[in-house]
Each structure stands twice: as C-alpha cells, then as structure tokens.
Amino acid sequence: MRRSVNPRRCVACRRERAPREMLRVVRRPDGQVALDEQGKTSGRGAYVCPDPQCVALCLKRRLLEKSLKCSVPAEVQAKLRAAVNLEECDALPDAAELFEEIKGTLGLARRAGELIVGQDRVLGALSTGQNLFVLLTHDHSVTLKRSIDARTVTTHVLAGVSRLELGQLLGLRQAQIVALPVQSGFAEKIKGLLPEGGNAVE
C-alpha cells in the first residue's frame, strides 16, 4: 500500500499541491536557511509554487520570512528566481493593486450579464461545453480545485484576494469563483492585466 503524502500550501497563492511539485525553502536546526532542492532536509519548511508569479509575490511581500520567522539570504532568493527564470528586475503588481485594477471590469461584466458567479453556475456552464476564463480566490476549496482540475480550462488564482473580498465586490456574503466566456472582451481585458495572462490549471 502506497503511503499517502500530505499536500503543502503555497505561501503566495495558497494553492495546495504535492510537496514534490513545489519549491521548498527550509530553516535548518542550526538556523541556516537554504533552498531544499531534494526536499529531504530536516527543519521548518515553507513552500512556493514553481512559477514566476508566486515566486515574485512571495519575495516582494516577504512571505517566506513570515512563514519561517527568519530572514531569507539573498543567495537563496537568487536561487528561487533562477529556478523559475525570474529576472531580479521583473516587476509584479501587488495583489491588492492588481485586484483594484480588475474590480471595475468585473463589475461591468456583471452588469452586462456576462459574469458567471458561484461554484454551481461555473461548473454547470463548463459541463455544457462552454469555454471559460476562470478566476479563483486564494482561499478556494480543495474540492472546487479538484473539480476545475478535471476540466481543460484557463484559470488564474487571485493571490491575496479572499472569498469575502470578492463577495463584497459582487454584493454577496462571499464568492470563491467567477468566470467569463474566453472570447469576451471583458476576459481579454482582465487577462491583459494579469501576469502571463493567467495560468492554465495543470
């Protein structure tokens, strides 16, 4: 019987993945901080998705330091950038700033009747074959993620944006998922604001 492996949560987007699929930074028992390339070094670990957006966000907002409760040396930060081909000068909008930029577009899309809100409606639209661009909050449920993973769909996790914040924008108690038709002008505008135009769910 194969031993089950507990998923780990990215410090940036809060998405859960298998440890072997992530980058791990570890604070060893002697206090030294290193990039754990083999995933076997003992000590307190912090995980980040192996993509430029998450690495840039965790470095910009010092999320590794907050998780490990210590400073992360410049050489470790450089190794993280190199692991995802992220140049030191690459700029990434702050999550809050990015959300402010797309708020207006989401509001206009809803008033135009193009925004699909909520898990049931989005999954229902996908089941009918609609090609959608999906936005998820960072605290989306694991069950919802699995449902999305089972489909070929373009999605983007709004790092730092919670269900409560998205719900407040839409006049709801909370919302963890919204979607737009891929060919919608609103979807194109939002994708143009996002780093790399959004990430495809693996």
Give a brief rundown of this model.
The chain has 202 residues and is an alpha+beta fold. 38% of the residues lie in helices and 18% in strands. The two termini are 26 Å apart.
Describe the fold and architecture.
The protein has 202 residues and is α+β, with helices and mostly antiparallel strands. The protein folds into two domains: 8-83, Hypothetical Cytosolic Protein, Chain: A, CATH 3.30.1230; 95-200, Ribosomal protein L30/S12 (60s Ribosomal Protein L30, Chain: A, 2-Layer Sandwich). It has eight helices and ten strands. The chain has helices at 52-60, 63-68, 74-83, 95-111, 119-127, 142-149, 163-170, 185-193; strands spanning 8-9, 16-17, 23-27, 33-35, 44-48, 116-117, 132-137, 154-158, 177-181, 199-200. It has a five-stranded mixed beta sheet with strand order 6-9-7-8-10, with helices on both faces. α6 (142-149) links the parallel β7 (132-137) and β8. α4 packs antiparallel against α8. It is elongated and about 55 Å long. The protein starts with 7 loop residues before the first strand and ends with a strand. Residues 197-202 have low confidence and may be disordered.
